[in-house]
Prior knowledge:
The structure is a single chain. The chain is mostly helical. Helices cover 88% and strands 0% of the residues. It has 8 helices and no strands.
Amino acid sequence: AVGFSVLRTLWCFAASFLIAFVLAAISKVLTPVYRVINPIVSFLRAAPTVAVILILYAFFGTEALTFTVGFLIAFPVLFTAIYSALTNVDKDIVEMAKIYKVKKIDIVKNVYLPEVAPSLFDNARSTISLTFKVIIAAEILTFIPKSIGSKIYTANATPDVVNLLAWTLVAIVFSFALETVVTIFKKIWEMTR
Length: 193
């Protein structure tokens, strides 16, 4: 149950991060793209999580539902954070690099990446635990077998308070564990710089 819930979270977070990063980078270069994406992101960020789950339940199967809900919650947070980090890069350093005809790949590697990475890691840490919680909520409402959500649902329906508390504690522990993994990656990145 734990393995499937964590795998769903990692898969959903990775897809959300990749798509958010690509669209944020394109939006940074092409302002019209940002004007199109920003209202969609704002709408998704404002939508109530449970309402989104219930609406999508009518259109998707249970497995697709958890991924879709996780994506719709994680993507806007990640897009906003990545776009903000990219736009806050010191423009003077970028201009100086262009004047001295530094290769674009070197500008990305030596200017953008060091400036953006700390913010990305911090936002990734909070977003991965948010994604985990949202996926568990979707699992509870749709009763996906072999998941933390189904265990919580069963414990609540029985009612079995001890099991309910135990599975809630499991969810909390693994939420912290996912955040810790991101923190470790951040420290490894900082040591290799």
